[in-house]
Design goal:
This protein is of the alpha/beta class and 298 residues long. It contains 8 helices and 17 strands. Helix content is 20%, strand content 29%. Helix 5 (203-212) runs parallel beside helix 6 (233-239). It is globular. InterPro entries: Competence_DNA_uptake (IPR052159), Metallo-B-lactamas (IPR001279), RibonucZ/Hydroxyglut_hydro (IPR036866).
């Protein structure tokens, strides 16, 4: 196993040998088939001197999930599909995470919110943050307590204790008719560094966002695991990301090659969780490091 580290500003690449830890996991069969094999986990996450913010794109077998960690708070953007619950739990337990202060649910569909109810049952969750059009569906299907639900839309923001900020860019009034375009779009800003989480939106919503906001970003989470109807050429020109992260599988069949070609044509450094494993970013106010680690394979 290897651990690759890239300094984003200097594009300096080093390769370090890294051995992953395998932790046994026993999963109860509550809607999810119990795993008969231990779920490979990551080493315990440590805070090096000077660490200020970490963003970790998790390599679940299905769905999208991103952890945002500071010294004071832990947030999760999306939960992955229900079938990936053993993997998500292995990561949270391996990193000794017992509380999630906020869980953002970009969409009520399984790849984004499939494990919301499991998180509520297993960990301390402060609030679930979701778009107006999704509240009733998520409350009904995920059986979440209504007092844990916070409805957010364009113009809302969350200030973190370390000075970082999460702004909601979508949805806005009127709520889009397309279910994909009702998805949350979030921007995480820390000093000069910006992350853009595009949920499941397509090129029509991307055009609307371009006209409303300055979409320039350093790091882009690719929409819907690289679905060809999003991450348009125009959107990439306007957002001009240095780095993009594409989750491996959203449970839908499509050809993601066009999206890859558009990203590479714009000279974007592309990481894919299916190939690279978890993509972890150590963020400072004016730069960031990118590393990735792969689970041990048997």
């Amino acid at each position: 196993m290897f651990f690759f580290k890239i300094h984003a500003k200097r594009r300096f690449l080093t390769v370090l040998s890294y051995t992953l830890i395998v932790l046994p996991l026993i999963v109860s069969a509550c809607g999810v088939k119990a795993s008969t094999k231990p779920i490979p986990a990551y080493p315990v996450l440590t805070w090096e001197e000077g660490s200020e913010l970490k963003v970790a794109f998790l390599d679940l077998s299905e769905g999208e999930a991103t952890l945002i960690l500071t010294s004071w708070e832990t947030l999760l953007i999306d939960t992955g599909s229900e079938s990936s619950w053993p993997e998500l739990k292995a990561v949270l337990d391996g990193w000794r995470i017992k509380r999630l202060d906020r869980v953002f649910l970009s969409s009520p569909d399984d790849p984004w919110s499939g494990n919301a109810h499991k998180l509520q049952e297993t960990y301390q969750v402060g609030h679930f943050m979701l778009a107006p059009g999704w509240s009733q569906k998520i409350l009904f299907t995920k059986q979440l307590p209504s007092d844990k639900i916070v409805i957010v839309q364009s113009g809302d923001g969350l200030q973190l204790k370390n000075g970082a900020r999460i702004d909601v860019l979508n949805p806005s009034d009127p709520i889009p008719l397309s279910p994909h375009n009702q998805s949350l779009v979030l921007r995480l800003t820390y000093g000069e560094i910006r992350f853009l989480f595009t949920g499941a939106v397509d090129e029509h919503m991307e055009k609307a966002l371009i006209t409303k906001y300055d979409m320039h970003t350093e790091v882009l989470k690719v929409s819907s695991c690289g679905a060809p109807w999003g991450t348009s050429e125009q959107f990439l020109r306007e957002s001009d990301p240095q780095v993009a992260v594409k989750f491996s599988n959203c449970g839908m069949r499509f050809d993601d090659a066009p999206t890859r070609r558009r990203l590479l044509a714009q000279w974007v450094e592309l990481y894919e969780t299916a190939e690279d494993g978890a993509v972890i970013m150590d963020v400072h106010r004016d730069d960031y490091d990118v590393s990735y680690m792969q689970r041990e394979k048997h």
